Amino acid sequence: MKQIPNLFTLLNLVFGCLAIRFILQPEPLFLSPGDKGITTGLLMGSFFLLLAAIVDFLDGFVARLFKATSAMGEQLDSLADAVSFGAAPGMILYRLLEMSAADHPHAGIWWGLPALLFPCAGVWRLAKFNLDKEQRYYFKGIPIPAAGLTVASFPVIAYYGTPAINDLVFNPVVLYTAIVIISGLMVSNLPIISLKFKDYTLKANTDKLLLVLITVIAAIFFKWLAVPVVFVAYVIVSLIFKPNKERI
């Protein structure tokens, strides 16, 4: 019974591996409303990363349910996250950059290499988290699942978005900028809200409730575009409330 939470965590890794498999598979374009196209593999990759995020969110509950939290489980969680929210989103960025190179005949393999900065930053972030025992009810830097899910939303946004939004997703300048900003936020020491509840008082959870409200409103008005909108809101709300170990 004690290994059930660890097996649940490994399911996160399985979904991450399946995501990479679909992201990198060669196939014809599955055309979206804009001028560019999104492959079915990219859409499937985003779907499996969503499943990985759900499992990652629930594995802590499973561990507490079976009273089986352990140092082994913490290490497995980080290793699975490195694949599902580091390597897999990095491959999404690589594929998007690769596809954007169609408009640039002189682009070489270097065109997509900056995408590898994302998984590197993500693993660095995980190593910092594992060594810093303060990061339990607040984070230093954007957590890798939030960063990975934001990138995973890009193919879905391009597929369901307008031609203008589609062009933005395939714009290499936009992609390079996103890579630098999100990677920089992951390795930064910026105090970031944790969604874990230490207690259930309104005063202690005002920041989390505000973020939930923003998420609901953004989902209603922006649909899939809500994911990067909520990511930005996550950073702004954290800057406003400035979580730290004295306030938890």
Automatic annotation (TrEMBL):
TM ranges: 7-24, 44-66, 78-97, 109-127, 139-161, 173-197, 209-241
One GO BP: phospholipid biosynthetic process
Keyword Transmembrane helix: yes
Domain of life: Bacteria
Gene Ontology cellular-component annotations: membrane
An example Gene Ontology molecular-function term: phosphotransferase activity, for other substituted phosphate groups
Key words, A-Z: Membrane, Transferase, Transmembrane, Transmembrane helix
InterPro entries in alphabetical order: CDP-OH_P_trans, CDP-OH_PTrfase_TM_dom, CDP_ALCOHOL_P_TRANSF_CS
Pfam family, any one: CDP-OH_P_transf
PROSITE patterns tied to this protein: CDP_ALCOHOL_P_TRANSF, PROKAR_LIPOPROTEIN
Family in the record: Belongs to the CDP-alcohol phosphatidyltransferase class-I family.
Protein name: CDP-diacylglycerol---serine O-phosphatidyltransferase
